[in-house]
Amino acid sequence: MNQSYEEMLNRAYLSIPKKAQTHERFEIPRAESMIQGNKTIVRGINELIKTMRREKKHFLKYLMKETALPLSEGNNQIIINGKVGAIQLNRLIENYFKQYILCHECGKPDTNLTTQGGVQTIKCEACGAIKPVSM
Ligand SMILES: [Zn+2]
């Protein structure tokens, strides 16, 4: 028996049951943040934005509006010019998902933000539901 490593890997892979399409509830990601002096630094935002499937500037605009604080971004982080606690920040992210990403019908995050006749709407790719949004 002289099994190559690759064969072993293949065997291990094949023994995994065919991908069970579980429709788990979408988990809203949490941001890692820290307060430095009078500033709040939110880290790893590229990953967060990728999960959102929204334009970064849309999320930044939302954050700025909700915190009423100026902010800047760069180097995979957001720097908020003020103190925003981790709980408050994650609540804002949660609300962003609820308002602009998650489908109000089926709760899935597979939605697109589009403008129809001057009105911003989110359209769900999974069930087709459309909801107008304010920003
Ligand atoms: Zn839906």
Uncertain stretches: none
Overall number of structural domains: 2
- Largest sheet geometry: 4 strands, antiparallel
How would the global form be characterised?
flat
- Give the helix tally: 4
Q: What would the CATH topology of the largest domain be?
A: Defensin A-like
Q: Return the CATH class of the largest domain.
A: Alpha Beta
Protein name: Translation initiation factor IF-2 subunit beta
GO molecular function: translation initiation factor activity
Domain Translation initiation factor IF2/IF5: 23-130
Pfam families: eIF-5_eIF-2B (PF01873)
Write up this protein.
By secondary structure, the protein is an alpha+beta fold. It has 2 domains: 28-101, 2-Layer Sandwich (Defensin A-like); 106-135, no CATH class. The chain contains 4 helices and 7 strands; from the N terminus they run H-E-E-H-H-E-E-H-E-E-E. The chain has helices at 5-14, 45-52, 56-67, 86-101; strands at 32-36, 39-43, 71-74, 77-80, 111-116, 119-124, 130-132. Strands 1-2-4-3 form a 4-stranded antiparallel sheet, with no helix packed on it. Strand 6 and strand 7 form a beta hairpin. The radius of gyration is 20 Å and the shape is flat. The structure holds zinc ion. Residues 103, 105-106, 108, 124, 126-127, 129 line the site of zinc ion (ZN). Residues 23-130 form the Translation initiation factor IF2/IF5 domain.
